[in-house]
Amino acid sequence: MARLSVKKLWVYCFCFSALLFFLIVTLQVLVELGQFEKKKPHHSDLRGNKHEVDQLNLFKKNNLLNGIERLSDPGHQYPILVWWSPLTGEDSRLAGCGKNTCFFTIDKTYYDHPMTEGFLFYGTDFNIESLPFPRKASHHWALFHEESPKNNYKLFHEPSITLFNHTATFSSHSHMPLTTQYLESVEVLKSHTYLVPLSKKNSRRQNLAPLVYVQSDCDPPSDRDSYVRELMKYIEVDSYGECLHNRDLPPPLKNPSAMDDRHFYGILAQYKFILSFENAVCDDYITEKFWRPLKLGVVPVYYGSPSIAKWLPSNKSVVLVNTFASPQDLAEYIKDLDQNDKKYEAYLEWKWTGEISNQMLLTTMKERSWGVQDISQDNYIDAFECMVCNRVWENTNRKKQGLVPRLWQAQANHLSCPAPKAFSLSHGPTRWSSVREVWKPSFEQSKKEAHALRQLAERNANFTVEEFWKLVFKD
Question: Is pLDDT at 16 greater than 70 in this prediction?
Answer without folding.
Answer: no
